[in-house]
Structure formats: C-alpha cells, structure tokens
Amino acid sequence: MTASSTPSMVERALAVAGLTKLYGEKRALDDLTVALDDGVACALVGPNGAGKTTLISILLGLIGADAGTADIYGDPAGSIAARRHIGYLPDVPSFPGWMRADEVLELALRLSRIDSTSVVGPLLRAVGLEGNRRPVRMFSRGMKQRLGLAQALVGSPRLLILDEPTSALDPAGQRLFHDLVRSLRGRATVLYSTHSLDEAERVCDSAIIINEGRLVRQSSMDDLIREGQGLSLDVSGPVDRLVDDLRAAAWIRSIDRAGNGPRETLTMRVTDLETAQRELPGIIAATGAALHSLNPRGLADIFLDLTGGAR
Ligand SMILES: Nc1ncnc2c1ncn2[C@@H]1O[C@H](COP(=O)(O)OP(=O)(O)OP(=O)(O)O)[C@@H](O)[C@H]1O
Predict the structure, then answer these.
(1) Which residues form the signal peptide (predicted)?
(2) What is the mean pLDDT of residues 202-220?
C-alpha cells in the first residue's frame, strides 16, 4: 500500500455522496457531497428552504433519497445500525406533559432497550435539570429543550443531530443552550442545523453551508471568518479616486460599490483586518473623501455573500 492510499486514522462520522432528493420538479437536495470526521462539532447552515431538514430526514431514515448515499459511521442511513448511532433533537421536542424529567429519560431508556437507569442522574445534571420534580407541562421552552438534549443523549449516540434547536428560545435561553452544547463536546460528533452563522460560531468549529440543495462551502469557522473579514464604509466625495487607492492597498481582497448619488457604500474584503483598520483613515484623508460610517463585516454578511441573499 502506498502512503497516499493509507486510510485516514480519523473515522468518518458521516459520509454523504451525490445525495439528491426530488419533490416533483423541486431538487430539495442536489448532488450533495459532504463528510464529517468523528468528534467534530459542525454546523449545518443555510437559509429557509436550503435543504437542511431534508438532509436530516434522510440521515434519520424518515425519507429516502432519489440518488446518492449517506453513511453514518459506515452504516447506510435508514438502517437500524445507522439509527442506533444517532441522537436527535428536533426544533420543538414534545413530551407527555404529566411526566417528570427523570420519567421521560427512563421511558427513552426503555424504548432503547437499555435496562440500567444509572445514566438518568448524570444526564439530568449535565443539562441542569437534576432534582427537578415538576411535570414537564410546567417547564419553560428552554427547559424542554434541555430535557430534549438529555433525551437525545440517551444510549450514548455517536452522532448528535440538533435541528434548529434554539429557534423557539429567547436570547437568554439560546445562550444557555449554546453553552450547554459546547460543554458536551467530546461526548459525540455534533451536526447542528441553524440559519445563522453567528450561532454556528458560538457552538461549532466548522460549518457545512448549503443553499438550494447544493453545497456552498464546507470549512472551519476560523477560515470562514478569516476569508470573509472586511469593512463596510459609507463615503462621499472623490469616490473613484478612493476606490483606486484602496485597490492598490496590500491588504485588499475585493471591493464592491453600491449606491449612487453623493453617498456610496464600499464593501471591502481584506486579508489583514488590523492593518486595514490602521491604514484606512490615512488613505481616505489623502483622497479628500468624507467618511460617514465604518463598520466591520459580520458573520451575517459572510452568510449573505455565500448564499446570495439580499442585503
Ligand atoms: N414534503 C415536501 N413536499 C414538497 N416540497 C418540499 C417538501 N419538503 C421540503 N420541500 C421543499 O424542499 C426544499 C428544501 O426544504 P427543507 O425543509 O429541507 O429546507 P430547510 O433548509 O430545512 O428550510 P427551513 O430552514 O425553512 O426549515 C424547499 O424548497 C421546500 O419547499
């Protein structure tokens, strides 16, 4: 065996190849190929209708694909073996309202044919619900989501799939949930579906970005942020000259111009944000242009760049 054909030591948690799902004429997934290594926390990011739920439904074996394959730890999606690898938390989990949290987990254990209930205490402790004796109907949405997470962890799944888990939570509940998922890293490979790269960055080290059923990008969060970093400025005056001078700067990656009339918005992507911020005021002053506002580009801008959304 040559060095180049030596198999990777890192096990594949997920291997999706050429996955295609049609709803009539609509290609909900269109030749999607992505892979996840064991142990990573990866966001599945895309705008409404991108195909996130369709992909998750195929991974869970709820629907079949029209073409392509999806393997979970080597087992084909939809098989019993693949299902056993997965813990799943939907966006709004529901439980019998009269049950207590410990009873919900005991039921999940029984349904998974696990006799020992010794994990109930540690799981409830992990999600901050230890000692809570109230029925679930009295839980806040955040508490239900945390209980759902504990339920998804029953049976120690190797792949934890979280489907827009904070969509029903307020900002405080979201932050608590993000912290919790981060603290659980290392227990399982995580696939975290979200609309937001900001949320992805809080929880995950990498992201799969899809749009219209196709892969747009799979990358580490650090690389996404580095490549998308930039500044947006509103200027007036000799904008043509300013743009020429900015294009000559060593740190410029690209400039887009928008707006007509006296004020224009320049959106710059840069290779070195610190140097750009240091040198920019001097360049603007030298051209005689007036600066009305200056803002760093955020992850929301990077998301819109990648998915072609309206600004
Ligand atoms: N059962 C269905 N019948 C017809 N079209 C469907 C069906 N399910 C999904 N679609 C279409 O497939 C595309 C992908 O939908 P999907 O729900 O997977 O996207 P999503 O990324 O999860 O979106 P959202 O973020 O809004 O939940 C969309 O255009 C959607 O309208």
Answers:
(1) none
(2) 94
